[in-house]
Structure of Acyl carrier protein:
Amino acid sequence: MGQNPSMAADGSEYVDEIKALVCETFDVDPDTIDENTPFAEMGVDSRRRVRLLATVEVEFGIDIDLDELDRLVDIRGAATVLAEAVESGAKPRKRGLPGFLRRNRLS
C-alpha cells in the first residue's frame, strides 16, 4: 500500500521552527528570508549545513542520517527531512554527540 500524498511528510509543521533555528544558528535576520531561500544565498556552505543538521538532531532529540545533508538546501528542505525522520520513527538521540558524528568518528 502506498502512502497517501496528503499524509506525506512535507515539513509544513516544522518550517517556523527550522527558520528560527537557522536564524539563530547563522545570525540571519528572519525578515530577509523565507522557506525557499537557498542556504547558499545566506552564506551557508556544506560545513554549516552539517552544523544545522547537528542542531536539528539535538533540538528534536532524534538521529538523522548524514545522507540527508544534500536535501538541506533551504528551510523547506530541512523541515521536510525532519518531518520524514519523525514520521519514520527516527531513533531518539542518545546523550552526547549527534548521531551522524557518533557513526562517523575516526578511531
Remarks:
- DSSP finds four helices and no strands in the chain.
- Residues 46-60 form the longest helix (15 residues).
- The two ends are 43 Å apart (CA to CA).
